[in-house]
Structures are given as C-alpha cells and as structure tokens.
Design a protein that fits this description.
By secondary structure, the chain is an alpha+beta fold. It contains 4 helices and 3 strands; from the N terminus they run αβββααα.
C-alpha cells in the first residue's frame, strides 16, 4: 500500500479510475452509493444491475493495489477454490450475508464487516467445526 507523507494511503489513481468508470456505465446500471473519499483505503462504487428479465443484482466495484506482498484478487481466488471444494458452504454464506445486509451490518465503512469479512467468518466457523 502506497503511503503519503501524512501516513494515509494515496488512493487517487483508484478514485480517478472509478470516476471514469461511472461515466461509462450503461443504463442497465444504477449507482446506489459511492465511497470515493481520498482518505479511505479502498474506494468503491455500489451499483444495481437490472437485467432484461427484471432481476436486480447489487455489486460493489473497487480498484485496489498490491498490498504487503498480496496481489489484488488473491483472496477472491482463494475463497472461490474453497467453495469449489466445499460447495455446501455457499448456501450458508449467502444466508448470513443476506441477514447481515437486512440488519445493516455489512458495511465496513460504518464499522461492520464487509461482504468478504462475513464470508471468511462463516468459512472459519465451518472449518472450526470440522465441516
């Protein structure tokens, strides 16, 4: 993670890239929320995608950098490989993440776990139980 002399991460390139992306989105996307503050570690935009069939999918988009020797996307690939080996975990993760969303407990920006955090918590709980 790059640091400014003030000790804060310099996320200006990520913020600029997300702003450019927002201007290029098709009408199928609705911007629900932006977190593009220059002082936060991972700026994101939260979108709803509406398919032709009427289904709506919420997604977060972030643009990160390598940090402490860990490549961007490594953890995502690791979690996908866990689900490939233990597909029974996926429904429980989905239920817990939906519960956290309904209860307003899924926003790291507000001091709670983010979606990935809830996923990792459930996977740890399952592994600790031996499942």
């Amino acid at each position: 993670c790059r640091q400014r002399t003030t000790g804060r991460s310099d996320n200006s390139p990520q913020v600029d890239a997300l702003r450019r992306l927002m201007h290029q989105l098709s009408d199928d996307f609705e911007i629900m929320e932006t977190r593009l503050f220059k002082h936060i570690r991972v700026p994101i935009i939260i979108l709803n995608f509406s398919s032709a069939s009427g289904h709506v999918v919420e997604t977060d988009i972030s643009i990160g950098v390598d940090c402490d020797g860990v490549r961007k996307g490594f953890l995502d690939r690791l979690v996908r490989s866990v689900f490939a080996r233990a597909p029974r975990a996926l429904p429980l993760v989905r239920v817990v993440k939906q519960w956290a969303k309904v209860e307003g407990l899924n926003k790291a920006f507000d001091g709670f776990l983010n979606s990935l955090g809830w996923t990792l918590l459930v996977l740890y709980w399952l592994m600790d139980r031996g499942d």
